[in-house]
# Entry
Amino acid sequence: MFFCHIYRPGLRATILAGWSASCVQGSRRRLAAQLPPRLVISEDDIEESFLKGSGPGGQKINKTSSAVQLKHRPTGIVVKSQATRSRFQNRSIARRLLADKLDDVEKGSESRTALKTEMKRKKKASKMKKARRKHRIHDHGGNQDNSASGTESTDVEDRKAKEDA
# Structure
């Protein structure tokens, strides 16, 4: 059996033979396949302006107009992005944020972000249930019944208790 290494900045994953990088990212693709497509916004409906950034980043971020503000004309929703120093990346991030906000307004609980949140909530609940199960098994010495705690009773003891009552 041989191993294949995938190198990314700050990440090194070892994959067994027969697996590929697409297999590792398969769960992301399955998640994306379950979600509805992103809302496409017409360029005519968007009013775009470039602003000077603020906050941490020093003089460079305060001097350049790399922050992007988008306004959706029909609804009046405004989104601002200054996540990166690149105007191009901030434009795409702002468009994605605007599409998500419009999707939330239009579809409510059926929106893409609501479905993502619900999937994350279910996954977290499943992890917590698994952790509780593991700790319960560990705390009781590997038995899932109550025999380790001394509270388990036999059928004979139950019959005796019923007869006495």
